[in-house]
Amino acid sequence: MSGGRNLYLLGALALAILGMTYGLWYAVFAEHQALDGIGSSLSASFTAAAQRNHAASGLSLNQYREAKYVYDRQVDVHGHWIGLAMLLFLLGIAYDHLQLAERSKYWLAMALLAGSFLFPLAVLLQTFSHDAWPRALAVLGSTLVIIPLAVLSFAFLRRTAPDSSPAR
Known about the structure:
Blueprint (H helix, E strand, L loop, with lengths): L2 H48 L3 H40 L8 H24 L6 H29 L8
């Protein structure tokens, strides 16, 4: 089996295990607390608004927004790692159908695997820091996913394009 195919399949397995492990941890230890925080901040905001306490309502809405922001990213990380793992599995299975040099296929696999790990990790880091560096890391990770996928798409299209030469 080629190095690129092994990279896709083993990387996919590692990402799937990471995504499922993180999802299990989050579901067991963090999700209920996050949902409780979301619900209670929203309830507090509505109660304060009904009492015409606009300052308390606004504060509770800000707490809701922050809790929802963190919750969405936590769930996205789990889903993206597993979804990207499934994509890597498919690419590993279809590896022989790519009309590219072996070295190019290997480096595309490296870039795609790196981006598939880095992008969700950077999204997770955004829950801890709202600085520019986690967003920049997310952009780098997504670029390492998008560009190899575009190249691979063209490589698959090139292989499946019908022969347009005239018959003799």
